Amino acid sequence: MALSFLGIESSCDDTAAAVVRGDGTILSSVVAGQTELHAAFGGVVPEIAARAHTEKLDHCVEEALHLSGLRLADLDGVAVTAGPGLIGGVMAGVMLAKGIAAGTGLPLVGVNHLAGHALTPRLTDRVEFPYLMLLVSGGHCQFLRVDAADAFHRLGGTIDDAPGEAFDKVAKLLGLPQPGGPAVEAEAASGDPARFALPRPLLDRPGCDMSFSGLKTAVLRARDDLAAARGGLSRQDRADLCAGFQAAIADVLAEKTRRALAQTRTPLLAVAGGVAANARIRADLEQVAQDGGAGFLAPPLRLCTDNAAMIAWAGIEAFRLGQRDGMALAGRPRWPL
Ligand code: KG4
Ligand code: ZN
């Protein structure tokens, strides 16, 4: 019989629980978002997130078990995100996992949230090590060479905002709805990406580090210049700004990915995170992989964005390598891979 693990995730603004088998079968995956709770504040409010996790976690776990058809006694272990993330939420998940482990005697495995994302291609597609992973979401942006389930090499990442965060902020600047990524992408479809000369930050510097906050400021300046000159933005102005911004992000991600692939020479490029849903960005990355002689993999979006199936899976991989955490497992707000 294959192993089966319960996974618990509560490090940002999604409360999630899942049951996954060691052969990669996802028996259940429940995700309860909190977008509406934070919408009025223009960002995730840590105290509100922590309280919502506390309220929703029990229910998510019960639901995940129910949908899986398994009882706690049928499981082989409990995996929980122990960081990095908002510490209130991380602690809520860790405490629940400890309670379950103590009550059932099941082994407890603390998982790094980034390892969860980074190992997802093995859950969905059984890929072999090594591979290059690009995580691009609202909270993450980094290149990882994944050598083993416990060996990650970071090649670079953003030194300020994540691209998703930049999409969200640009949407806000232009009066578009949240989440900003899909809204900006939709506007960009009818825009001219060449009309505004927006910067490609850090492309002139070697290495794989990226920066996106200056790009957002450049959009703000272009918007204000237009508004000052014409008293407002036309529909076309907005579409052109969105197209220019999206092209700048895509260019930076593509060029830095080209460098990361050249450095690692891995046979596969995998991408994860909400921003990987962007058609232009995804097509550019796919082209970079092809040019570099590498395969390209983007797992289904529901497994690329925050979820607990990836945590259960990362827990299974760590468990197979011998990891066991006792009641001393502590949540960590910062935890580089
Ligand atoms: O991975 P994710 O669901 O959550 C975390 O950040 O953890 O990513 C959400 C981010 C948001 O910033 C959203 O605006 C962005 O991904 N996003 C997109 C698109 N769809 C979602 N960005 C660009 N283009 C899209 N189509
Ligand atoms: Zn995440």
UniProtKB/TrEMBL annotation:
<feature type="binding site">
    <location>
        <position position="168"/>
    </location>
    <ligand>
        <name>substrate</name>
    </ligand>
</feature>
<dbReference type="InterPro" id="IPR000905">
    <property type="entry name" value="Gcp-like_dom"/>
</dbReference>
<feature type="binding site">
    <location>
        <position position="113"/>
    </location>
    <ligand>
        <name>Fe cation</name>
    </ligand>
</feature>
<keyword id="KW-0808">Transferase</keyword>
<keyword id="KW-0479">Metal-binding</keyword>
<dbReference type="InterPro" id="IPR022450">
    <property type="entry name" value="TsaD"/>
</dbReference>
<protein>
    <recommendedName>
        <fullName>tRNA N6-adenosine threonylcarbamoyltransferase</fullName>
        <ecNumber>2.3.1.234</ecNumber>
    </recommendedName>
</protein>
<comment type="similarity">
    <text>Belongs to the KAE1 / TsaD family.</text>
</comment>
<feature type="binding site">
    <location>
        <position position="306"/>
    </location>
    <ligand>
        <name>Fe cation</name>
    </ligand>
</feature>
<comment type="function">
    <text>Required for the formation of a threonylcarbamoyl group on adenosine at position 37 (t(6)A37) in tRNAs that read codons beginning with adenine. Is involved in the transfer of the threonylcarbamoyl moiety of threonylcarbamoyl-AMP (TC-AMP) to the N6 group of A37, together with TsaE and TsaB. TsaD likely plays a direct catalytic role in this reaction.</text>
</comment>
<keyword id="KW-0963">Cytoplasm</keyword>
<feature type="binding site">
    <location>
        <position position="181"/>
    </location>
    <ligand>
        <name>substrate</name>
    </ligand>
</feature>
<dbReference type="GO" id="GO:0005506">
    <property type="term" value="F:iron ion binding"/>
</dbReference>
<keyword id="KW-0012">Acyltransferase</keyword>
<dbReference type="GO" id="GO:0005737">
    <property type="term" value="C:cytoplasm"/>
</dbReference>
<dbReference type="Pfam" id="PF00814">
    <property type="entry name" value="TsaD"/>
</dbReference>
<keyword id="KW-0819">tRNA processing</keyword>
<feature type="binding site">
    <location>
        <position position="185"/>
    </location>
    <ligand>
        <name>substrate</name>
    </ligand>
</feature>
<dbReference type="InterPro" id="IPR017861">
    <property type="entry name" value="KAE1/TsaD"/>
</dbReference>
<feature type="binding site">
    <location>
        <position position="117"/>
    </location>
    <ligand>
        <name>Fe cation</name>
    </ligand>
</feature>
<feature type="binding site">
    <location>
        <begin position="135"/>
        <end position="139"/>
    </location>
    <ligand>
        <name>substrate</name>
    </ligand>
</feature>
<dbReference type="InterPro" id="IPR043129">
    <property type="entry name" value="ATPase_NBD"/>
</dbReference>
<keyword id="KW-0408">Iron</keyword>
<feature type="domain" description="Gcp-like">
    <location>
        <begin position="25"/>
        <end position="313"/>
    </location>
</feature>
<dbReference type="GO" id="GO:0002949">
    <property type="term" value="P:tRNA threonylcarbamoyladenosine modification"/>
</dbReference>
<feature type="binding site">
    <location>
        <position position="278"/>
    </location>
    <ligand>
        <name>substrate</name>
    </ligand>
</feature>
<dbReference type="GO" id="GO:0061711">
    <property type="term" value="F:tRNA N(6)-L-threonylcarbamoyladenine synthase activity"/>
</dbReference>
